[in-house]
Amino acid sequence: MRKILVLGAGGQIGTDLVATLREQHGAENVIASDLKTPESVSGQGPYEKLDATDAGALREVTQRYEIGTIYHLVAMLSATAEKMPEKGWQLNMDTLFHVLNLAREGLIQKVFWPSSIAAFGPTTPKQNTPQFTVMDPGTVYGISKLSGELWCQYYHQQYGVDVRSIRYPGLISYAGAPGGGTTDYAIDIFHQALAGEAFESFLGENRALPMMYMPDAIRATIALMEAPAEKVKIRTSYNVTALSFTPPELGAAIQKEIPGFTYSCKPDERDSIAAGWPQAIDDSRAREDWGWQPEYDLPAMVKDMLAKLRQKKSR
Ligand SMILES: NC(=O)c1ccc[n+]([C@@H]2O[C@H](COP(=O)([O-])OP(=O)(O)OC[C@H]3O[C@@H](n4cnc5c(N)ncnc54)[C@H](O)[C@@H]3O)[C@@H](O)[C@H]2O)c1
After folding, report:
1. Structural domain boundaries in the chain
2. CATH superfamily, with its number, for domain 171-211+242-314
3. Quick one: DSSP state of residue 108?
4. Spatial contact of 152 and 214, defined as CB atoms under 8 Å apart
5. Residue 7: C-alpha distances to residues 36, 170, 199, 264 (Å)
6. How are strands ordered across the β-sheet holding 3-7?
7. pLDDT tier for residue 44 given thresholds of 50, 70 and 90
8. CA of 118 to the centre of ligand 1 (A)
9. Does the model's pTM come out above 0.85?
10. What are residue 238's DSSP bridge partners?
11. Which pLDDT band holds residue 198 (cuts at 50, 70, 90)?
């Protein structure tokens, strides 16, 4: 079997994705890589410290391990990229081109690259946001995601590159720490609640956003990657979703499990970023084309998240 390389494996998604891919394919067949050397992925199987902006180093690792598939998870996320727009653009675009070019040359056969709900913008319909609609992102992160989607489609159409993509909503997980996104509040709130502390959300009380629990996100990612090529009809990026909630709705769901928990909202600049994003997404094309179906609703996600964080703390 040709091996799998995960770039940005030490991040929020990589931590869970690498663990699942290693369970499915055997640890020796999944090479984790990142700028840093996180224990979560480096101790459990092959690991390469790799700067994904270095095209030569990326090529060398790809050839040495006989890589067939790359999951490209390196990016500067929304809130961080707004603080350094040019660096964010460069990192997000340069690394995507390096990976797409390896596929164009035939060195690898398949690429996964995630887009985001940040690719939508202020004039995109906010309810039941369609797969094909106005996209006018107002952040450098969103601009890089929309541009990346179009480049993926271009490489597929012009060069036959098998690149597949999902527009992830905000992702909630217990294993990896969040990486500077606008939806990080929905993870921090669980840690504060378990610590017995009051929580202040940096998003406003009416700020509903599409969200997903990480186990669903990993299932969606792997289902898309395993789908027969002819079923993957969209080569920009697929809408996928599971949940949509405001900070008070999440707070109330946690309160049901931890009755003394209190929360409030004090919006900061991240609320303005989220104001340009959809509130709920139509993912019917992903359901029709490759059978996407989420498993976790809000109460199930909250119960599982609290249980897993309690287990983690007691270890
Ligand atoms: N987490 C979310 O809620 C979410 C939502 C939508 C889309 N996404 C997308 O999914 C992907 C992964 O997101 P994440 O939340 O895991 O991000 P993250 O910030 O947690 O992880 C990114 C990882 O990339 C690494 N990295 C940064 N620069 C690098 C470089 N030059 N070379 C190698 N590694 C480098 C970082 O060390 C980090 O471990 C990104 O493309 C992101 O835009 C994430």
Report:
1. 3-170+213-239, 171-211+242-314
2. UDP-galactose 4-epimerase, domain 1 (3.90.25.10)
3. -
4. no
5. 11, 20, 33, 37
6. 47-49, 30-34, 3-7, 67-72, 110-112, 163-164
7. confident
8. 14
9. yes
10. 166
11. very high
pLDDT per residue as tens digits for the range 105-145: 999 999 999 999 999 999 999 999 999 999 999 999 999 99
Separation between Cα atoms, residue 66 and residue 295, nearest integer Å: 35
The protein residue with its alpha carbon nearest to ligand 1, atom 1, reads 171
Q: Which amino acid is at 251?
A: G
**Known catalytic residue at 213:** no
What's the rounded Cα separation, in Å, for the pair 184 and 202? 9
Phi then psi for 197, rounded to 5 degrees?
A: -105, 155
Does residue 277's CB lie within 6 angstroms of at least one atom of ligand 1? no
How remote is the CA of residue 160 from the centroid of ligand 1, in Å? Answer: 26
Contact predicate 220/232, CB 8 Å:
no
- Catalytic residue, chosen from 47, 65, 71, 141, is 141
Chain position carrying tokens 């992160």: 141
Tokens encoding 132: 């094909």
SS3 27: helix
CB of 179 within 6 A of ligand 1: the answer is: yes
Please work out whether the CB of residue 94 comes within 6 Å of at least one atom of ligand 1: no
Least confident stretch, 34-48, 220-234, 276-290: 34-48
AA letter at 19: A
Q: How many CB atoms lie within 10 A of CB 61?
A: 20
Residue whose CA is closest, atom 37 of ligand 1?
35
CATH 3.40.50.720 fits 3-170+213-239, yes or no: yes
β-pairing, 243-245 vs 209-213, is antiparallel
Residue type, 133: T
Please say whether the beta carbons of 265 and 192 come within 8 A. Answer: no
Q: Above pLDDT 70, what percent of the chain?
A: 100
Tokens representing residue 98 in the block: 């390096």
Indicate the angle between helix axes 12-25 and 214-226, nearest 10 degrees.
50
